[in-house]
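Q: Hi! First time doing this. I have a protein sequence and I read that you can turn it into a structure. Is that right? Here it is:
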Amino acid sequence: MRIGIDLGGTKIEIAALGPGGDVLRRERIATPRSYDETLAAVRDLVLRAERSLRQVGTVGVAIPGTISPATGLVKNANSTFLIGHPLDKDLARALGRPIRVANDANCFTLSEATDGAAAGQAVVFGIIAGTGIGGGVCIDGRAILGAHAIAGEWGHNPLPSPRPDESPGPSCYCGKQGCIETWCSGPALTGQYLRKTGRNLIATDIAAAAEGGDPNAQSVMEGWFDRFARAIASVVNILDPDAIVIGGGLSNIDALYRELPPRVERYAFTPEGPTTIVKNRHGDASGVRGAAWLWREDELAGALPT
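A: Yes, that's right. Below is the predicted 3D structure, encoded as structure tokens:
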């Protein structure tokens, strides 16, 4: 049995998966507001699941940040109370067994590459597109961490080939200007439409208005698709993934899967055909499922039974 924990800013979710990825148990609770309370909450969720199912499992945890290879402490987490703590070691101590912790975008990508929309593909790039823009890389069924544990974090690269009216670009919380996140996230799209029309709509409603024939929404979406395609093309030129899977709230914009592939082909160095860009299969369960699959590397290496 594999147990996954998705440790988010507002909720903690646990899922226990059987050998074939079937869900044996799921539970959600609100995320406590302190580090020690969060440790206790995760411990109790795991022990409660194991008592209910009468078996012990491996445990993986997805977090909105990562553990620094240099310090062993959480960094880059928007759940700021996690920052500066050795989360994997503290959870291992609380549960009396090894724990694996990974960035939630990495877990999303691992989930979709294992038994999701990109199952069977060798090189997968996962995009989390919502309030922010994140990403992860999975190669041959393994999530790639990188020397600084930031592999796939394309959202804080600058927007490629900026037009005169796109430079230097909006300020980003990371301290730079013109990051992909400031142009392609949900709030960015909302802001672009607001500035054009004076109306405050969420991103999916803007996309729906464009599909319905609203010329202002169509104009804004045209610019957004173009920027998103430029951003993805830069990834394609470096990684050349077999598939790109999109998750997060913006993944529900159906036009993405029609509009992006030919635009990415135009911008990328890919004369043989468009990049495969697909919607996720597991929705908001991909994070917790990917956390559960973190131990699969050992199985792929023959170190654990499947």
